[in-house]
Amino acid sequence: MMKPRNSIAKSIFQKFKNVSNPRKPPFSSSSILESIPREKVDCLVIGAGIVGIAVAKELSVNHGRQVLVLDSAPIFGTGTSSRNSEVIHAGIYYPTNSLKASFCVRGKELLYKYCKDHEIPHKQIGKLIVATGLSEVPRLSTLMTRGIQNGVEGLRMMEGYEATTLEPELQCVKALWSPSSGIVDSHSLMLSLVGEAESHGTTFSYNTAVIGGHIEGNQIQIHVSGSNAIANWNGRSELDSELILIPKLVVNSAGLSAPAIAKRMKGLPDGIIPASHYARGCYFTLSNTKSPFKHLIYPIPEVGGLGVHVTLDLNGQVKFGPDVEWIKGIDDIPSFLNMFDYSVREDRANQFYPAIRKYYPSLKDGSLEPGYAGIRPKLSGPEEGPTDFVVQGEDIHGISGLVNLFGIESPGLTSSMAIAEHVAAKLLK
């Protein structure tokens, strides 16, 4: 699918191909800055996750712009985009008039249409959000009211016996039925979007890390290094820049490392960059048994996430998760290179069994196997309450042609194309 690189990508590729262990002084020195090669580009997208790819596709396909996408990984979609539930959300959970609510509802519409038009594997299987005790019923009613206010169609409250006619293994006193929820093959989706973007002139440069930038004459200049070079960084001196890109438009959609990159952009006001919080979520799969469910099953949401829920993949495999584990001490460089701990400890299953048995009491001991883990790029910590997506443009930071995307956690996959529409409108107004 990859086509020959254009001049800027050739420059990047050749530059980093020859980088072994650079020993230049830090890029903060003005004399060193002057000696670093520079390249002008039209649109630069930082991060090749689902949102970055969708933005690149939107700018190139629908607006005819020349786009360069940089990612520190060897291929697209290696972070949060490939480590989630692959659920197409309806738009129920999010405060009315929030970006999450509007982007989710609009994004769902765009996503289903794109998947249908491009034959992306997906299925609108519906979701049951369940109250397993009478004390949870008011919260279920609140979710329904909010979903209706957000424009979600088809929502219906069910008594427990009605829900069990759909799912005989389910136990609940009431359930909220969401028929527009579904699942999607996220890799096939990203692969298709990458192909479309490339066919309209977008170039993807992998193993290429953005390590910061500076503002010069109200124009942002982006500092780039090869991923191998910064992996060998000694941790004491400032990072070396191997190339400076001078784009007309920049979208910082780096996911987990978006705030860290923004903080390294000299001239960007520090006060407008939110603090980063990271919450790991583990998934377990159901082994040695036929799937007991045909629909998505969600408990009442918890702090930091939507609770340990039932997700099906397109082959019918059942997975449970994610849970919420807050992690600390993440430095810039590990976040630039996605060096997070994605291991799933077997003993975490001990916390899954009681959570799952609230709605699936027949779950047998020993039937859960470790699956995979993801990290949520959150903007609030434990007990701080949920936050909205942050789409930060010139009206906030004062820099023309720059949009920062912060806190793009769930429903980021569902919202990706709506976010792309919004970002393009913000940049090209």
Automatic annotation (TrEMBL):
It comes from the Eukaryota. InterPro entries: FAD-dep_OxRdtase, FAD/NAD-bd_sf. Pfam families: DAO. Its EC number is 1.1.99.2. Gene3D superfamilies: D-Amino Acid Oxidase, subunit A, domain 2 (3.30.9.10), FAD/NAD(P)-binding domain (3.50.50.60). Signal peptide: none annotated. GO terms for molecular function: (S)-2-hydroxyglutarate dehydrogenase activity. It catalyses: (S)-2-hydroxyglutarate + A = 2-oxoglutarate + AH2. Its cofactor is FAD. Residues 42-425 form the FAD dependent oxidoreductase domain. Keywords: FAD, Flavoprotein, Oxidoreductase. Belongs to the L2HGDH family. This is L-2-hydroxyglutarate dehydrogenase, mitochondrial. It comes from Solanum tuberosum. The gene is LOC102595556.
